[in-house]
Amino acid sequence: MSYNSDKLRDMIHYIVDISEGGELGKTKLNKILWFSDREMFLRFGASITGETYLRFPQGPVSQHILEILRVLQDDRKVLIRKKKRFDYDQYVYLSLVDPDISTFSAPEIDVINRQVAWILPMKAEEISTISHGRAWQITEEFQEIPMFSVLAEKVRDPLPDDLAWALAE
After folding, report:
1. 36: enclosing H helix or E strand
2. Which of 46, 87, 132, 147 has the most CB within a 10 Å radius?
3. pTM of the full predicted structure?
């Protein structure tokens, strides 16, 4: 699937909308996007948005997230506030209108909802660590994580019986 900016915009808006009252910052938003697209790819062979994710130290990051958040704010669909939290800036998102979810299939909405429910209660550092799977590990820093590389996460080390079979004549 090729990148669909409208679908990414609608997905971000939907996530912001259903996450209100929760601790949704940039880190968790990126991880919800990543894990949603990743799960759809693993289950159905195509991600939801076709987005490109880059390998950052905190885990996969949506290439277009800042641009899309700016569009949502300019269109007065999402309000973005920045507040100081300890020694860093935390971003808080508020949905100002109902999101358009008509472009999503039922399985896509289900995947997004499950990722929000799983990730939102976690600390940002915790979900960042979890996002450091094999796809992230085998990609150079600040480079694109090819979506097909998530298949490497399904690979396991061979068991002794596997090695015996492979070495048998």
Report:
1. helix 26-44
2. 147
3. 0.89
